[in-house]
Amino acid sequence: MRFKKTTREKGQTLFSHLLQIYGVGYNRILFVCSKYGYNPYLTKLKKIPYTLLLDLRKDLEKIFLIDKLLKKRLLIYFRIMLKQGTYKSKRFLLGLPANGQSTHANAKTAKRLHLFKVSKVIK
């Protein structure tokens, strides 16, 4: 539950600031901001008190899995898949798409994620 005070850059909007949180996307930001009555695209970060940013963060944590909890849940999920020896886990270890995408054009995301995740999952 941390916001770095240094990340409050000049002219940054609320949307771009909340988007930096792992596991928070467009719909989740709109949901939480509508609860407080803010337009995330027009509201500048300097106009919002730091305590309100913490409240937004707490609401996100109550409703959704974000940051460390989400990363931990994903690692547990991948470790279970590896122990079971599923087809998806084998494709994952090879750095290939696992959800039916073609390898000719759409494998770039799988290859990028492969380098990041495999080292954490195998530990």
Spell out the blueprint of helices and strands.
Blueprint: H1 14-18, H2 26-36, H3 50-63, H4 67-84, H5 87-94, H6 108-122
Outline of the structure:
The chain is mostly helical and about 120 residues long.
Describe the structure.
The chain is 58% helix and 0% strand. The two termini are 26 Å apart. Helix 4 crosses helix 6. The longest helix is centred in the middle third of the chain and has 18 residues, at 67-84. It has helices spanning 14-18, 26-36, 50-63, 67-84, 87-94, 108-122. The chain has 123 residues and is mainly alpha-helical. It contains 6 helices and no strands. The mean pLDDT is 81. It has 2 domains: 5-63, no CATH class; 67-122, no CATH class.
